[in-house]
Amino acid sequence: MRAAPTILHLDMDAFYASVEQASKPSLRGKAVIVGGLGPRGVVATASYEARRFGVHSAMPMAQARRLCPNGACLIPRFSLYRAVSDVVMALLRELSPLVEPLSLDEAFVDLEAGGTAFDAESALETGQRLRADIVAATGLSASVGLAGSKMLAKVASEEAKPDGLLLIEPGTERALLAPMSVRTLPGVGPATGEHLRRAGITIVGELAEAGEDELVRMVGRSHGVGLYRMALGLDDRPVVAERDAKSVSVEDTFDVDLHDRVRIRNEVQRLADRCVHRLRDSGHSGRTIVLKVRRYDFSTLTRSETLRGPTDDPAVVREAAARLLEAVDTTGGVRLLGVGVTGLADYTQEDLFAQSMAAEAASAGDAGAAEPDGAAEAAGTGGPGDSGAPAGPAGSGGPAEAPEGVEPAGEPEPARERRWAAGSDVRHAVYGPGWVQGSGVGRVTVRFERPGSPPGRVRTFRVDDPELEPSDPLPLVGEPAVGEPAVGEPVPEEG
DNA sequence: TCTGGGGTCCTCACCCTC
DNA sequence: TCTGGAGGGTGAGGACCC
After folding, report:
1. Domains in chain A, CATH or no CATH each
2. What are the pLDDT digits (tens) for A446-479?
3. Structure-derived torsion over alpha carbons of residues A296, A297, A300, A301, reported in degrees to the nearest 10
4. Would you tell me which of A225, A228, A287, A294 could form a disulfide with A343, CB atoms 3.0–4.6 Å apart?
């Protein structure tokens, strides 16, 4: 184990909700719930004000609304969160080349590798400076944990929340961990937690006392050995700056269960296209196609098929997904469909060209090929002739021109009425930038304010008001917005 | 109005080959 | 020639994380 506590774990506090509060001044100090707003939506993040009502991540949105009826419920705006995250990650990379992002709002940093800290004192100083820099750059608070290992640094930042910093001194790990719940340890979720509880183990100290053999017997070799080491405070996993993606997938939960087989087939095709889009964006091709189906009773099954070689051809993925669907019984209804690709390979034009030529030769030369003939067929049609596929040549993006934002899952698209999702950014020709507070019965209510401005006032428009348009999020800091009136008519003070 | 979306890793069963 | 085991590939599902 490393002696110096120079592994830093950064955790932004209630990240999505905090970003929303920063960009919408009227929500500061109020309960904010970010998540899916559909009938089957769940909470992604709740502000600390909302958490006081019992709202937490992964809770059904309907339940969150019941617990916190006055909370502002907003859809996530990932493009904005990504932009803020980029700013924070850039600050981390100034500290060390070894930065391991875990998500948009979390990362490990090896300070020693960056030469920024080598003992407790310098690590503390670096951590404090980082927190101040993040506030200056984004206006948001973050919690920092410092320890000699990743696991302990994460425990420390969890203990430091919100808006705090904690360093775990070398030598104090076991005593610190002993009284904590086993659920504190990474890898111990509801299932393992319950398993251990039934064996009379609820805190980390008891885990250490149980011994490695007993834990291996209970939860399996890999997990058991890992748990025992963590209970002793041992963790020598290095901070890894770059991780290769292992799979790419997309999935949709439908507001209402799907029963119509044709509709289900169409949705699978649509998901396959979106998946390939993502696959290509990431610069990969993949070899194994996975279909995921969650049925009406929430039972989930997956079916997969491994191709002869990696592909990023939409036709090939569509065909494979369709074949997999044929083997699935969907009577009773389907609430979720997903298509994924694993066994990723680096995308190279040559590989694909060679594969396409080989498939073409195989299908042209001999009809009776081996089993994955569908793949060969599809690869053949994806050639220069471009016969079957409706999507145009690469680059045009195809029909799935999904915007960056989050749209409600699968609707049949009737006569289009403009829809304004709560929380989304808009700009009015007269009143300037604002955000949608709510909409319904042909009306949309917009609050006109921006990051750094005082809380703005609310106006209501017809949903088809031509002067109202969707807009991009404004940066949280850096715009001289304070005191500046909105574009067009000035916003009056208090009414 | 129960239960999202995008991942990773592990385990187990089965089949095939050596 | 038959049999048994090891080991890899594949497919499916579960647990977990943010």
Report:
1. 1-171 (3.30.70.270), 178-231 (1.10.150.20), 247-378 (3.30.1490.100)
2. 999 888 888 889 899 998 999 999 988 888 886 5
3. -70
4. A287
